[in-house]
Amino acid sequence: MDGAIITLIAANAAFVGTHFAMSHPLRAPMVKALGAGGFTAAYTIVSFATLGWVAFAFKAAPPADLGGSGEAGWILATLLTWPAMVLLAGSLMGNPALPTPMAEAQARAEPKGVFRVTRHPMMWGIGLWALSHIALLWSTRTLVTALAMGILALVGAKLQDGKKEVLMGEAWAAWESKTSYWPQLHKLLAAGAVPLIAGTVLWLAGSWLHLWQAGIPAGVWKWIG
Fold first, then answer.
1. Are residue 85 and residue 116 in the same domain, yes or no?
2. Which residues contact 126 (CB under 8 A, 6 or more apart)?
């Protein structure tokens, strides 16, 4: 295996592994030792350091060493990224998973917007984005990194349920009873105008910027650009 790919695998493993470790088994002892502020600072430093390693390792790896999945792959990737952006856009509005003073009240309320689709819209947005890049079969570096980010998001979402059950008790249990871990994409059009419009704008803008960032036309711009 290419040395650059081995380094990239190590970087992604470090990024994902430290996230899981600091979010779960190491969280309590780190907070006890460092305090809440110190834990947040340490978490941020480690996250940015390992993400920076991923970025440098990604750039050093071969950019297009696989055959690709052709036109079908591009169509699938384009279709997957639209719901991903809609879920991501709506995930910041009324999300009880975020550490805010309103979290318990939001968990007891009826699901609205993208939370009718899944209780983890941010995580599934990242997961669908990752799947769209895996579907392209463009390069080993893309497969490795997208798979790592998908695992971080979707396994992290499942682990988050367990953590929130402990932290929020009955409020989170009520939220789980009204929502789904798995995305019910047939409900996406009922998410409301704001996430649908904002997500579509993100989808179009992000895929347009893809050409300038990666040098590859993506999304609908691949055919109409």
1. yes
2. 84, 88, 149, 150, 152, 153
- Please say whether the dihedral angle defined by the alpha carbons of residues 62, 206, 13 and 87, taken in this order, is positive or negative: negative
Q: What is the pLDDT of residues 40-75, one digit of tens each?
A: 999 999 999 999 999 999 999 999 899 999 999 999
108 and 20 share one domain: no
Range of the domain at 189: 64-224
Residues ≥6 apart with Cβ < 8 Å to 210 = 216, 217, 218, 219, 221
Per-residue DSSP letters for 124-176?
HHHHHHHHHHHHHT--HHHHHHHHHHHHHHHHHHHHHHHHHHHHHTHHHHHHH
**Pair 68, 43 in one domain:** no
Cβ neighbours for 158, distance < 8 A, ≥ 6 positions apart: 181
Q: State the Cα torsion 173-178-23-60 to the nearest 10°.
A: 170
Distance in angstroms (rounded) separating the CA atoms of residues 49 and 35: 21
**Percent share of the chain, pLDDT over 90:** 89
Chain-wide mean pLDDT for the chain? 95
Distance (Å, whole) CA 137 – CA 42: 35
pLDDT band, residue 225 (cuts 50/70/90)? low
Q: Quick one: 103 and 140 in the same domain?
A: yes
At 99 the pLDDT is 85
